[in-house]
Amino acid sequence: MDTIVSVAIGAALTLVVVAVHYARGTGWEPPADISQDVLEQRAAAVPETDFPEPMNRSIGGGAAGAIPSGEGGAELAEGDEEEEDEGFDPEAIADDEVEYYEIEFAKEGETIEIANNENILDMGEEEGWDLPYACRQGQCVSCAGQIQDGAALDYIQHEHNEALFDDDLDDGYCLTCVAYPTDDFTIETGEQP
Ligand code: FES
């Protein structure tokens, strides 16, 4: 009988000690939630772009196409390009100013006429050729081709170029999705610098 009473008293005391312990709390407090701050800081560190990000890597471009590679810190031709192409709007070309040029697609083995308000990529696709592209906005190099006759800007003008360097342009590379002819030329499609 004494044993039972002792055990009951022990159990009761244990319960009292446990209850007192939890009633006082542990003093622990959860750390402040900084996840939103971290997200905002990361967002601020990433440069803004209008480029549709998923398209960047999903269609034909790949990482190599998304960011142009330059040698020795070469700068984008964007500054020069913008200066040169600034204000160029193919849709603003009046009907009586439309001119046609003979563009030879070397790999496709055909020459077609393309107007100065039509881009190389669109016209090639109209022929049924499966030409590479991704953004169609001059922001990657997926659609690049190489003009065989000389520096690209002697033969086309870009509506928009955020991907090619001066050296690339001098080597004849152009972005076919935003390239409009200003002369006859031969182009190798699917050639990137
Ligand atoms: S498809 Fe990206 S620049 Fe032409």
Automatic annotation (TrEMBL):
One of its GO terms (biological process) is electron transport chain. Gene3D superfamilies: 3.10.20.30. SUPFAM superfamilies: 2Fe-2S ferredoxin-like. Residues 77-92 have a biased composition (Acidic residues). It comes from the Archaea. The keyword Transport applies. Its cofactor is [2Fe-2S] cluster. Residues 101-193 form the 2Fe-2S ferredoxin-type domain. GO terms for molecular function: 2 iron, 2 sulfur cluster binding; electron transfer activity; metal ion binding. InterPro entries: 2Fe-2S_ferredoxin-like_sf, 2Fe-2S_ferredoxin-type, Beta-grasp_dom_sf, Fd_pln. Keywords: 2Fe-2S, Electron transport, Iron, Iron-sulfur, Metal-binding, Transport. CDD domains: fer2 (cd00207). Residues 47-92 are annotated as: Disordered. Belongs to the 2Fe2S plant-type ferredoxin family. This is Ferredoxin.
